Protein 1
Amino acid sequence: METSLEKLPSPLEAEASLEEDQEVPSPEMPPPLPLQQRESMPPIGEMPPPIPSQHSSSQHRPSPVVSLLKKEWLRFQPFLGKHWNSFVSSDKQQQAEKIFSKVEYELSSLKKTSPQRDLLVLRPSEHETQWQLWKFPNRKEDAPILLDDQTLPLAPSLKTRLLVGVPTRDLVVIPLWISTEGNLQELIELELSSKHLLRRGMAEGLKTIPLETKEGRILVVVLAPTSSPSTLTAPYLKAANQFEASARLLPHQYADLLVWRELGEVCFGFSRKEQFVWFSGTNETMVTPATIGLIKRMTLRLEAEAILQETPRSLHIFGSFSEEERSLLKNFIGMSATALDSKKYNYYSELPQPILSTPPLDLPDEAARDKRLHQEKSLRLKRIIALIAFIYFCLLLLGGSALFVKKWTLQYFQHRITKEQLAIEQANQAITQWQEFRPAIDPTAYPLDILTEIARQIHGEKIRLITLAGIEGKLQIVGEATNVTQAYHFIEQIKKIPELQEYEWTSGQPKLAGKSSVRFELEGSRSHAKTSSE
């Protein structure tokens, strides 16, 4: 039921309704049952398990908006003065309470949209070319809502999930006894192929429901969509997220034989172990003796194959069937036309609300499977592209981070070099000044100090110093000795002078300079002699 704020009564309309003493029906009272359904109602003590109906509604909790309206109404009472007492004493107070109940009922349907996607169930109606659209809220305590009974194909939406009930005419249902040894799927396909029931494109869409295991065999129900759905069904399958057999949306757990009308066609099915073992359409718009004959033949065939254990003894009818049609079906299960036994027979003039199986039996047709395969390939390609883009982004981020770190490091060292440049220049100036003043103040560089230290190594008249030259960190000593031994001894003594330790000395072999006289030369240079001049 669609609800909008425009449908709520205005204060003037509510006051007018109070003055006219008109009865406002309470929303909590259920609508009266149709005459045919009242006739078929069994005694209270023999009621079957309850079957959900589209008229059922959840108990609404008091809305905060209604509580606020009542509070404001009580605050308004003192302003009415003496007229309020007469109003309270009249019967119109009950009318006011009914108005509040109606407002509460209307506001209860205006709930906030759930952050999760609600489930929409689209199933075929009993009338030709008409479908029903049901909404299943995410909150389990909320009852399903019938949105539209003559709906058109829906457009895909990201806010809802759409489950389409595939019509019975577009499904193939085959019950089989299969050996428990071996691969179940392969055995099913082999059995269907041997019976020439496996058509092109059906193997990919096969769904199996195991029911019972007995003496090394298992009873399974195989369901598969036809290769091409009917023209009335195809437009409704395009926007679906999931698919389910429309017959499985009916409450099939409480009867052996179920009969319903779907898209103007009479359909029937058999139940075992609270599961459908077989269902199909009849290509008939009404229940006739020919329809009963078809049901009898299918019953005998299923009993012969041990699919059904016995002839159906209970019957459920859903939809607008005439009294004559119901009588034919009652006679089939051995009941009189006027019998009202709820344990064997129940009639519901309308299709009940859908019953969802968990998980739903997904039955997409060939076009839907191709669409899903295309979407999976597209999604896989998008994921690969996204992964490549992510890796490229990570590499780009990593390279950019490394480049940023190098650039920052370069700027940091440039800043340090610029900062230390002044100190370096001052140090170079100090080094230059030191090199300039060193010959005058450094004992190791002042020629007179060097000469003094060398002269201390001369003992007697055996050694005679001829030349002492010092230029740019270099010393050249030329002297004479009486013999070679004394010349070498004098050279070793010079190398041991502490003030001359930083010099590296080279000497040649002493040469004869005259009678009882040898001449020797000695050169020394500091390791930083070259750099000191720069």
Protein 2
Amino acid sequence: MNRKILFEIFLVMMIIMVGNASGELPACPAPGDTAITSSCQLNDDYIVTAGNGYIIGADDVVIDGAGHKISGDVTSATCTAGQTEPCVTHSGIVNNGGYNNVVIKNLEIENFCTGVVMGISVENMTVEECEIHDCGASDSVTHGIHIAGAYNCTIKGNEIYNQKGTADDTCGAGGNGISLHGVTADENYGGDWNTIIYNNLHNNAKCGLHAKFQCMHNTISHNLVTENAKSGIMPECKMSNYFTIEYNTITDNGPYYGFYTRGHDNVIRHNTITNTKGTDGHYNGIYISTKGAPGPFGENNIVSNNTVCGSQEEDIKIDGNAADTNNVNDNTCDSTSGGTGNGCPYNCSQTQLSLSISASLSEVKVGEATNVTFTVTSDDNPVEGANVTLSGSADGSGITEADGSVVISVNATSAGTITATAIKENYTNGTTTLTAKVDEIHTLSISASLSEVKVGEATNVTFTVTSDDNPVEGANVTLSGSADGSGITEADGSVVISVNATSAGTITATANKDGYTDDTTTLTAKPKEDGVSSSVSLSVNIKPTISLIVTPDNIDFGELYSGETSDVQSMTIENKGGSSFNVTTQVSDNPAEDTLFKSGLLLDSAIWSDYTISIDAQASVIANGSLNVPGDYMGIGQKQGEIVFWAQA
């Protein structure tokens, strides 16, 4: 007679943290000549002692600093660089391979040769909400951001300061907050069509922003440019053409210029340029030179509606053989020469007033639209008709009413600083800041006063919910599986639920609350024992025909993202019986509808359902298990399953 004997011999509980990549970017690897070919987010600060920080290696890459910092060691580095050849020996972020649609945001970069390098043929790269400071070497052509031939790029909402470099009188010197440099006359590759807005450029060794060599069609607006050691904004060479320079605040720069150019067909308007001074140099607020040949040099520029005051020499100066090709109109200044038009009909001492701006809130939450009242005054009097513009972590604008106030709905898209700038003609700009913060997410922990209940017997169970060992009030506790029910925790974090299981099995209690990650605990529902019984102990010693032992009794596959495969975990299957047998397996998920382990568990590199092996008496084999998370798997959090090994004679 053939006998088929099946023994359930082993239960493996598998726990895995599965992250859904759609929720946030994966973590960036540590920097150090590290190539980035897919989007990522920093989860820590890093120090880079040699080589570059991150090197862009693909299109469409986002690096989100998430407020973290990468620090270099410029004192130990050799900062080899030139005007059209940015430093790629020890810079923070390097995109020198022509990769497009790259975004660098919310990152602090310090103590490298150059903070960010944007090389030739790079298109549509964005650097926003970054803090770049204390980079560069005094003997090198180093800058905060070095743009050499990149085009259609955006530099927005950054603070760039304390950049070092050669900072001499040559136009290709280092030490600029932003250096914008062309490489050819081709308008697709000459450093053209870039937008540089809402940046704070201060205390750099040469200029806040410098441009030269055939850069054209760039927009430079709404920047705060202060206390740079040579000049404020200098699109210097004769081919810095078709720029729009507007609504910038340029103050306390020198000893050269607030603004200088030899380019033609530029529009310079609505800028506030004050206190351009020094012990030697030229000291003009705005200086346009038409000297030199062959031309055109500095011709056909429009200089209008600027406030230029407090210059040590002339506030607006246009000189050379083609000075009268420049149109100078409706400016506020005390001295001007050159150009045509009415020049400066407004006198600084009569019209130069300063705007002050305040906000009704100092903080807002990311992703939560909040009405903020901004109030603009001058000498404590309300200012009507001032334009209030937001930059940084949120955008938006509005015009003040007669009481000097305007309400703007502020909806921050990322954590960081929001700058509100108040602008009105014949006033110096005013600014204030708000902080955009992300709500901190806490994790819930739930426990139960009982681990077992009887089927059909209603039992009061106390569930306690905490977070960081503190009770959580208002958490929703929901039962599923062999029983249902729900309740809301009290101030002490507890709730009593009457648990009435309808069948034997597992009851899962889930705790959830907005702003927290969920947690679960389980109870076992066992059949109710009916009637009266009396027992007699029976015993016999049977030598097993089939005896199977599997070790270890627990496997943890760690933390995985969708599409990843875990490291291999080995299991030893031993035949302790007196005859050979075949081994097969059965895998299940908890809850059963999840199917993660059923669809992804591999044994010896094949799906578990194909696994079968014969084991001789008193012999053993090794089974190598791994978990492949399907690419379309949408679950997240802790997942459980079990594998049963079956022995069949």
Protein 3
Amino acid sequence: MKYVKSCLLNIWNYSLALFLGQLASFLIASLLPIGPVTAQAEPSPPGSIVQVEPAQANWLSFVQEAEMLASPEALLDQCVRFARFNEMALGMTSETLTQEFADQPLLKTLDRLFKLRLVLRTMAGEFVSQKNSRCVDAIRTTLNEIRVLEDFVAVAYARQQDLKQPGVLRGESPYLLVNPIYPREKDGTVQLKSGDILLSRGNRFISAMIAKITEPGGLFSHAAIVYVDEKTGQAYTVEAHIEIGAVVRPISAYLKPGSARVMVLRHKDSRLAHQAAQYMAERVAAISETGENVPYDFAMRTEEHSELFCAEVPSEAYEIASKGSVVIPTFRSRIEMKNQNYLRRLGIAVRETFSPIDMDIQSDFDVVAEWRDLEKVQATWLSDVMMSEIYRWMDEYNYTLRSTPAINMAKWFAWSIRRTPLLKELVREKLPSNMSRSVIEVVGILDKLEKVLVPILLAENQESLNRDGMPLTRVELSGILEKFRIEDLDRYLTYSEFNFKYGNNPPSEGLPVLAPPLPRFHGIFRPAELP
């Protein structure tokens, strides 16, 4: 492949630049030293617009004609700009993102994007204090969109330099980005402290299934809290997994390769943070010592804690340690799916819950660092698109998941083994005792869908990389799946018509009747009105 090709220039040239430039006057001066600001003899009156001279001519300049807001009353206008930027980002194609990198300083771009997110994250507090859910949703989505842009820059730079992926929370940019107020250790790593919250993301469909089920959707699917034993100095994570429930494990288990991305968040009160971690570690460990773990909460309830889902672990920890004064999250994600059949089969009965993405605007926590596995991050783009399309097809076209005899048999077999005294230990680490048969069935069907849909995306994405040096964007990947859905639906209808007409008895006279090809996935996932 000749030269690696870039992403982002068209975003910078107007929409991202103008949109982000108007968010905060101090952003330009303190974080993006891109050119002289026009001096004013008198302070600007509230609400006035301050003009900034054009940036120097290079594509890293986010702002060419930026405006700075002089009054916080303009926050609602900023909210509109967030929404406009998000719409634009969702529609970007690889063609509009493809430009020669030449000798552009990509690491500086990545650093500026990361620092920009830190600034925007503090600004989210304005929307939160106003309890403006529309604006909160918009800025959370914007933070995700900028994070995706960082992914593109990081992947492009790593490919350009042929870099080797370091371990979890290790390395330098473009892998590990550290908040300047939290210096690295001497070995370049990030020191984790008691009470830190770790947000992470796997790269398979179950992680995407969790990340995309809420509104707005996020890029993280799992949350854990760090506990550091004061006597021994040993660090642990306390976390709840679907397969095994809540457990306390050495931090070394968490830092093994597996996650696509990890973000470290730290509460401003270190004493409270340690108390929260200690409480949760002791609670979970005490139950595990009885031979069973705290069960995983498939219903995602936050009002009671006899069962725990992943984000509920740090939430309850800080709630108890602070005697209710620290509420995590300040703003909850919503579950707005129209497909009630799907939610019932998963056992979800709530309309609001704590999704890991909610921590992105939690003002009493600082972002310490973010880390990416650049190979796995690319895989999450595909699984995110797949699950987003599956959910869209459910809501827009009334698609439902259909079981098969094989899945049904596997469901009963797995469920029965977990309840058989002599055999249950064989699946203890893979199948929780409180996972219902319907959840096992849903996971089995989605697993089959992943095996059909993801290879299609992989092939198309690899073709784009080979041809242009650029991966496909979400709108292009979504378009590929939508086209495939229409084609496969036609195959299903054609095959169903043939089967209804001939069944197993095609006509014996004349030319043989050839059965049409089987549908690829409509046998297990199709509109509810179809037989």
